[in-house]
Specification:
The protein is mainly α. The chain has one domain. Helix content is 62%, strand content 5%. The chain has a two-stranded antiparallel sheet with strand order 1-2. Helix 1 packs across helix 5, helix 3 packs across helix 4 and helix 5 runs parallel beside helix 7. The radius of gyration is 17 Å and the shape is globular. The termini are far apart.
């Protein structure tokens, strides 16, 4: 176990919770109880299926083919066990191709908190908007995409309003 990776997980979880609290404090969404997974966010990263592979991939130095392969399996485990990832909701069908199922709203909120957590780490809360634009290959259900963009628009409006007030 790498202390560096463990520290990363702890900080990431804390920043996800900060993002969620910010959304709650600024009334970004209505009638959304705290999703259990925001509190238990990414606990699978501590699992045997993920921890060592993530640790070696991000903190182990050389990325050999074995390290990359192990990370791919760990990532697959992660998205299959964490429904706040959009990939969890993508269905690859034998006959009908690939398409996204609608994400429950609580997971949309957690997904945005997950993305935004990195902005809380750097202190630039606007980073999420560029990140979202750069990741335009996401396969999202039409309703999920609208919810994501509505939440991001609300965040931007509040951030812009706060800047004007300062």
């Amino acid at each position: 176990m790498s202390q560096e990776y463990t520290n990363y997980i702890v900080e990431h979880k804390s920043n996800v919770e900060k993002a969620f609290r910010w959304l709650m404090d600024h009334n970004i969404f209505v009638d959304c109880e705290i999703p259990v997974n925001v509190i238990e966010h990414d606990l699978s990263k501590y699992s045997a299926e993920e921890y060592n592979a993530y640790d070696k991939y991000f903190y182990g130095g050389k990325k050999t083919e074995a390290v990359k392969r192990d990370f791919d399996y760990a990532w697959l485990h992660h998205i299959h066990n964490n429904p706040h990832h959009w990939q969890h909701w993508v269905l690859v069908n034998d006959d009908d191709g690939t398409y996204a199922l609608e994400m429950p709203y609580e997971y949309v909120v957690e997904m945005i908190c997950d993305w935004w957590s990195f902005s809380f780490k750097t202190g630039n809360l606007y980073e999420i908007f560029d990140w979202y634009k750069k990741h335009d290959k996401m396969i999202l259900h039409e309703k999920t995409k609208k919810e994501v963009e509505d939440i991001l628009d609300k965040i931007k409006k509040v951030l812009d309003d706060e800047q004007v007030q300062d």
